Amino acid sequence: MENNEHILVVDDHHEIRDLLGQYLSRHGMRVTLAMDGVSMREALNEHDDINLIVLDLMMPGEDGLSLCRHVRSIDGPPIIMLTAMGEEADRIVGLEMGADDYISKPFSPRELLARIKAVLRRSSRSSQKEESSEDSDRLRFDRWVLDNNLRQLEDDSELVIPLSTAEYRLLSAFTNNPRRVLSRDQLLDITQGREAMPFDRSIDNQVSRLRKKVEVDPKNPTLIKTVWGGGYMLTAEVVAG
């Protein structure tokens, strides 16, 4: 990975914004700074080579969750969210909306740099995997078809079931690894490009929501099974077509 990635830093506090801009620039990265949602959208329109967004959660005007939703709707770059201490619920919602990692304020620029590099590495590997699996645009399992081009789910009567970004990533992880136990740590790494934090249960919440869409009886799941002490497993055979 070349050390000239383009990072967009979005934070309404100019001290934090400027400090991060200077620090990342000293480490060989190109940096664009934005003070709010309006300037972030302008930067994304102006630059088509942004590799990652560092996005503050709490900002006046349009907040980080809304901006994260926008970036995911346009299939934008990975996002690392900056959150205040104690905002666990907001962090989980952010991850479920498609943020790739988060870091709590106060933080050291060195830690943020390490997380940026880790997310970029995982994003690169994920893109390579997606490109290698593009031959299988539609994957069939049980009574479902996952359309990887449209990122949507269809049942056997061709009824479309909308998927959030987090739900699509999770289901894609399962269909790419059928009948294989995936731990919470693995699912977090695959779907969100980060290592699991202690007691992180955002994957459990996502699995619960996904089960409500694919299981006949979500309270007694048979398609996405819980493997006690291990994680989760898609029990169905997956075929292309």
TrEMBL record:
Compartmental location: Cytoplasm
Domain annotation Response regulatory: ranges: 6-120
Residue span, OmpR/PhoB-type domain: 136-236
Residues annotated to bind DNA: 136-236
UniProt key word Metal-binding: no
Keyword Metal-binding: no
Gene Ontology BP annotations: regulation of DNA-templated transcription
Transmembrane regions listed in the UniProt entry: none
Domain of life: Bacteria
Keywords, ordered alphabetically: Cytoplasm, DNA-binding, Phosphoprotein, Transcription, Transcription regulation, Two-component regulatory system
GO CC field: cytosol; protein-DNA complex
Modified residues (4-aspartylphosphate): 56
SMART domains named among the record's database cross-references: REC (SM00448), Trans_reg_C (SM00862)
Gene Ontology MF terms in the entry: phosphorelay response regulator activity; transcription cis-regulatory region binding
PANTHER family: DNA-BINDING DUAL TRANSCRIPTIONAL REGULATOR OMPR, REGULATOR OF RPOS
The protein, known as: Transcriptional regulatory protein OmpR
